[in-house]
Design goal:
Length: 270
Amino acid sequence: MISFQKYTDEEYTEEIKVESVLKLSLTGSVLATAQKLQKKISDPDSVLLSGKDLHITLASGPWWKKEKNRIQLPIPEPDFRIDFEDSIQKITQGKSTSWYVRIKQQKEIKQYVKDILGNVPNPKRVYHVSLANRTGKKGDSVAIVEEERDYKDEYKKFQSSKKMKKYRAELNRYNREKGTYGNRDGKDASHKDGKIVGMVDQSINRGRAEKSRLKGSTRTVYEVLKKVDGKWALVSKKDGKPLRYYDGKGKPPDEWVAKQEREIQFFKRG
């Protein structure tokens, strides 16, 4: 059943400022399947949500709040079945933690949302059902789950772009003119304001990223290094989302942190 669900401030904690959502409520066999999946959650920190709170959020946030009164009622029900993926995921954003399961029909739901709303308010939204959180209260679940960006793949594509090919050709030409191309002298061409200004040691040029993280730096820090679910990760300072996980042992070295930051910032600039 499709339903408009309006949440009042009393039903939400102060940290969550969502006033309304468009949701697809779970009923019948779909609800029964979701409740079976709930029983698979064994984390002692989890508290299961009640059956009446199990749903798929289709639209939420400022756009939906502004546009919801323009939507024609009644809203047609979806003409496709709802299936769940096999694995249960855990996500933490800020003070909220959720255990959720993804919907298999991501493309179908996105098209359905577009058909009834005219566009997709949250194009990166992962349509899912929150099965549990730390309190059992629906307002304490993570508000929105988004697709994790493959920064490594995006960085690879960025490096193969015309812009970066031209950039590397400029570096190679500069090295040839200086007679330093391929001599493995441990030096990099240094840039300032988009122009090559000379040669510096690689350790200095490539170490600028981690030095800029030190206390007293005037550089704006967009990522922080912290543990997430027991693993070291580079986390977005803005929304607390893990951007890169470290697969090695112990705390990541500065070189790893600097490399990840460069890749992330390269993509953002590209």
